[in-house]
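lol ok so funny story. i was supposed to be doing the assay writeup but got distracted and ended up predicting the structure for this chain instead. priorities right. anyway since i did it might as well share w the group, maybe its usefull for someone
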Amino acid sequence: PEDLRPEYFEGYDYFHIEGYLVQNQDLIAKAVQMARAAGCIISIDMASYNVVESNDAFLHNLVEKYVDIVFANETESRAFTKCGDPVKALEEISGLCSVAVVKVGKDGSWVRSAGEQYYIPAWPAKPVDGTGAGDTYAAGFLYAHSMGLPIKACGEIGSIIAARVVEVVGTKIDVPRWKAAKQEIRALIEKING
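and the output, tada:
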C-alpha cells in the first residue's frame, strides 16, 4: 500500500479489482480510496467463493462503500449473499452497488442496474475450455459500459467475448475469433443505435 500514489489513478475512468487481490486488504483499502478520489468507476470480480468466504466482512464493506460494479459467478454470489438462488443473490448485490452481474456459466448471466434486470443467454459457442471466460466477460462488459451502452447490451457484449474464449484452450483468443467477435459487437451496437 505504501507504494501507491494518487497520480496512478488520475486520468482513468475505471479501476477494476481482481478478486484474488482482496486478500491484501491494506492494499485494496488504500487503492479504492485513491480510485474514488480520482473519480474512477470501481468494479470488482469476486474471483472465487473461497476468497469471498475468507474475506466476507471486508468484501461487504468494500462493496457497500466503494464498488460500483460487481461481477460474481453463481458460487461467489451464494457465498457473498448466503442465498442459493442466483436471481435473488443478484437483487441483493444490486442493493449494495450500481450494477450487479451474476454469471451462471453455460446458462448465461443476469445483470441488474437501477431496477432494470435482464437475463443474458450465453452466446452460441463450441466450448473447449472455460479458462478465462469470467475475466473476458467482465472485459467485454466494461468496454460496453465505458461506451455508455445500455446495461443489457453490456451483458450481451460480455457474453459475445466470453463465447470466443471458451472455444480455445487457455485465454488467448485467435485472430479469426476476434474478427468474428468484433463483427458481432458492431452489429449489436448498430442495432442499438438504430
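The two ends are 47 Å apart (CA to CA). The first strand starts at residue 14 and ends at 18.
back to the writeup now i swear
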